[in-house]
Amino acid sequence: MDRRYSPSQFHEMTYSATMPRLAFRGQEIGEWREQLDIAFHQVLGWQADKRRGPLNVEILEEEATSTYVRRKLVFESEPDSDVPCHLLVPNGVSECRPAFVCLQGHTTGMHISLGQAVGPRDQAWIDEEQDFAVQAARQGYIALAIEQRSFGLREERLQRMRSANGCEDAAMHALLLGRTLAAERAWDVSRAIDLLETIPGVDRGRIGCVGNSGGGSATYYSACVDKRISLALPSCSVCTYADSIFRIHHCSCNYLPGILKVAEMGDLAGLIAPRKLIVVAGDEDDIFPIDGVRKAYAAAERIYAAAGASDHIRLIVGNGGHRFFAEPAWAAVRELL
Question: With respect to CATH, is domain 43-336 assigned 3.30.160.150?
Answer without folding.
Answer: no
